[in-house]
């Protein structure tokens, strides 16, 4: 009986199969690793490409003549101030409009005396729009450490020097302002401006407008505002309150003395009739209150012009000053 020959195929072991599979996969894995990493970083790569593109575009735009400054629009101020602003903007905005620093330009504009606040808008491709809040002259003042008169705004900032040729007849002058070189002086000046504001408002709150009677206002003492009457050397002390009532009463007394109105003696309870002889030497009217007054006379003041006599061309000498002391009336006083 014949025997059948059989052949048996020897299968590789598990370890050999693993090695063969690994040898097949390794080349494929190494080829795809780079792409897999690039795919994982795709967002960052896109941003890099975008930034490079934008930088190149921006560089090209800044070098383009299309964005050079050609027009400057200035609004909110007077023509002379607008001309100065436009000149400064053009001087500091050379090159491309895209590279102009608006905060720096605004700071430089607000350093000008007449500019309180500036707002700048960039309008592409070639225009800058400047909106100005201009400082307005509020009071003509005499200030320490300054040789001439200056215009101040409502915040006490010096705007410009007074020029009689261009500014015309000076309005009511305010004196006694401290130097604006230090913080303490600026703080005091703001208080003086508030007093000035209160005073002018009170004097013109009704008719008659008493501000028309004033030549100058002395604000050097914050607790005692003093005014000099127009076309006169008489100074009226008004204190710090009731400005209108006090000045109205003071002007009534001054006018009555100049008219030699004898009724003033009874109404004001002046007991010395020689008050009319002393009237040309009246120096100060101190209003203690709205109805109480102290009069000060100065015999050293120039005497009034002599009046011609009725019988010829001779002139009578001015009256001599009365004695240094006079009786003090009730509710008022007269003193040298």
Automatic annotation (TrEMBL):
Pfam families: FtsQ_DivIB_C (PF03799), POTRA_1 (PF08478)
Subcellular location as annotated: Membrane
Predominant cellular place of this UniProt entry's protein: membrane
Keyword Ribosomal protein: no
Organism: Chloracidobacterium sp. N
TM annotation in the entry: 39-60
Domain POTRA: 67-135
Stretches the record annotates as Disordered: 299-336
The protein, known as: FtsQ-type POTRA domain-containing protein
Keyword DNA-binding: no
Recorded superkingdom: Bacteria
Composition-biased stretches (Pro residues): 316-326
Keywords, alphabetical: Cell cycle, Cell division, Cell inner membrane, Cell membrane, Membrane, Transmembrane, Transmembrane helix
